[in-house]
Design brief:
Length: 275
């Protein structure tokens, strides 16, 4: 975002982008090996106990002999982008310029491709660091329509994944996300509104319909990520892409009558076109 070789000074660039100068000059501290190991274990525990907050996760770690404080666990959870999933009052306010859209899927039966797409972001551990994975999923067929791997959780990589899914697969009737700042940003929602897609957002901390993407994360992590230790971001991108290609083409699902996501997505699409 900031170009240090540009003719415009860094101070001026920061002012144009409405960024604090402290943010521009901030050098992130490397994550220690101990914290990386903790984050990996927190990620595993979060998949098994998605309702667990920092206190419960601290207690679970202590039962495993890991002495760590609740505040440190909470700090690592924030860095990873995870939080306890449960129903609670939504008293938070969106960021300036960010609109929260209503939840549109209550009572809706999702039985055909391109009826509802969902999107989420997940933390992916590597040998010496971590990245984030965003994926667009067709809810009816469980097919991953597009994905991106990023070193940050900024909105740009989510917008790229969304634009790719729309370009390759048309558009859904409804697009569902949580209320993450990436998904409430104008850059992201404007792509959907311009395409004429209805936007749906889960309530803060709700588990409802992005549970389909949460199931994808569990599968990807236990069948791919946790079996490997990526040495670089490029290796993580390549390996995850290979796995997701297999997931779409070759992994049958009991919920799809043992069909693969590709078979469920394209077979129904072909039948609808023929009709």
């Amino acid at each position: 975002m900031i170009d240090r070789d540009h003719d415009l000074s860094i101070v001026r660039q920061a002012k144009v982008l409405n960024l604090a100068r402290s943010t521009v000059y901030y050098e992130p501290r490397p994550v220690s090996a101990e914290d990386l190991a903790l984050m990996r274990r927190l990620d595993e525990l979060h998949l098994d106990y998605p309702f667990a907050g920092a206190r419960m996760l601290r207690s679970l770690l202590r039962r495993e002999g890991v002495c760590v404080g609740r505040r440190h666990v909470a700090t690592l959870m924030k860095r990873m982008g995870i939080s306890a999933i449960y129903r609670r009052p939504n008293t938070s306010k969106p960021a300036p310029g960010h609109k929260i859209y209503p939840y549109l899927l209550r009572g809706v039966k999702i039985e055909r491709p391109n009826h509802v797409w969902a999107m989420d972001i997940s933390y992916i551990p590597m040998r010496r660091g971590f990245v984030y994975l965003a994926a667009v999923v067709d809810v009816a067929s469980r097919r991953v329509l597009s994905h991106r791997v990023s070193i940050t959780m900024e909105a740009a990589f989510c917008v790229e994944a969304l634009e790719e899914a729309l370009a390759k697969h048309g558009k859904p009737d409804i697009f569902n996300t949580d209320q993450g700042s990436q998904f409430t940003s104008v850059d992201f929602t404007s792509v959907l509104t311009k395409a004429g897609v209805a936007i749906s957002m889960d309530g803060k901390g709700a588990w409802r319909d992005n549970v389909f993407v949460e199931r994808l994360w569990r599968t990807v992590k236990y069948e791919e990520v946790y079996l490997r230790a990526y040495d670089s971001v490029s290796e993580a991108r390549a390996s995850i892409s290979r796995y997701l290609a297999f997931y779409n083409r070759g992994r049958p699902h009991s919920s799809l009558d043992e069909r693969t996501p590709d078979e469920a997505y394209f077979d129904v699409q072909a039948m609808a076109t023929a009709a």
